Amino acid sequence: MERDELSDWLRLQLTPGVGDLSARRLLAAFGLPGEVFGQPEHRLREHLTPAQTRAVQQRPDGFDAQLARTWQWLQGSEADGAVRRIVTWDDPTYPSLLLQTEDPPPMLYVLGPAAFDTRDLGRSIAIVGSRNPTPQGTDNARAFGRALVEAGIPVISGLALGVDGAAHLGALEGAGDRAMLATVAVVGTGLDRVYPARHRALAHRISAQGLIVSEFPLGTPPLHQNFPKRNRIIAGMSRGTLVVEAALLSGSLITARLAIEQGREVFAIPGSIHSPQSRGCHALIRQGAKLVETVHDVQEELPMTALPDDTPELPFAGTAHDPDAASLLAALGHDPVGLDALCARTGFSAADLQGKLLELELDGHVARLPGGLFQRVARA
């Protein structure tokens, strides 16, 4: 992208009061952004309000500094060789699925290897869910991310804590050392910062084996309103959206609703009827989302790539060689349960139970939850 071309697109993006829909009307009427800014006032008023027309005829405040900042960012490269790009509506590499949605952003800032093309996202699946998942929810997100990528299906998520981060990690594990587009993180900040900060190392890994994408100009901080907005990109770039865990008021349900509005498939993993983190998934299933237990359930709806025979399925059955431990796992079931209830179910003393639960917890078969509760965790 040449500097003059960048200037035109950036000015269109930064013009106050002119959103994506208005920008689309202008480009449909006049062509590229440079043509828009050369139009007389009466032509602009055919497509804009008077206030928008005035805004288009003026350079946005701070525009020159933002242009210099963006141009300098484009000229640089990451230590791992990741390339910085801007993909616009007229670019043939703009994600075709996203372009088909009602409100695609005019510009996408992209960070990742030059060999990775956003056109490869036509077979991708989004994985979203709670920022505070149960241990089982974290394991499910990671396992599904890994299995999908092993099947050649890129995973899209939002780099948030919880399910998002687990899905990205699983996708990277599924890719291994292969040079393939494993995962895409759609973020709610400018690409010159990482949020949350604790995912800095994860973001670095993604930029080496995937893509990080944002519609927001450089320097954009983690503003609350930007994260629901970026969810339309997560849903729009994907063939389908898988919700792992979500409360009834979760932002993941916004992503699922957007996917439905865009005509995409929605999948949901069921959970305990007692867990608040399962209620959003159960609501989606009642509304027509496909109940998912294995990765093969996803592939049945979106036949894209054959899954390998050894692809792990969920839920994974926890096993133990100790008969007492096996009976304890059976007594645990898959719902959170307290120590008193386990004593009644198993006949073990509280002291014996504490020791056996600790062993199972160290082996990864049981998770200790707040409130003195325990929950069985499925394993690969």
Automatic annotation (TrEMBL):
<dbReference type="InterPro" id="IPR057666">
    <property type="entry name" value="DrpA_SLOG"/>
</dbReference>
<dbReference type="InterPro" id="IPR041614">
    <property type="entry name" value="DprA_WH"/>
</dbReference>
<comment type="similarity">
    <text>Belongs to the DprA/Smf family.</text>
</comment>
<feature type="domain" description="DprA winged helix">
    <location>
        <begin position="316"/>
        <end position="372"/>
    </location>
</feature>
<feature type="domain" description="Smf/DprA SLOG">
    <location>
        <begin position="86"/>
        <end position="302"/>
    </location>
</feature>
<dbReference type="InterPro" id="IPR003488">
    <property type="entry name" value="DprA"/>
</dbReference>
<dbReference type="Pfam" id="PF02481">
    <property type="entry name" value="DNA_processg_A"/>
</dbReference>
<dbReference type="Pfam" id="PF17782">
    <property type="entry name" value="WHD_DprA"/>
</dbReference>
<dbReference type="InterPro" id="IPR036388">
    <property type="entry name" value="WH-like_DNA-bd_sf"/>
</dbReference>
<protein>
    <submittedName>
        <fullName>DNA processing protein</fullName>
    </submittedName>
</protein>
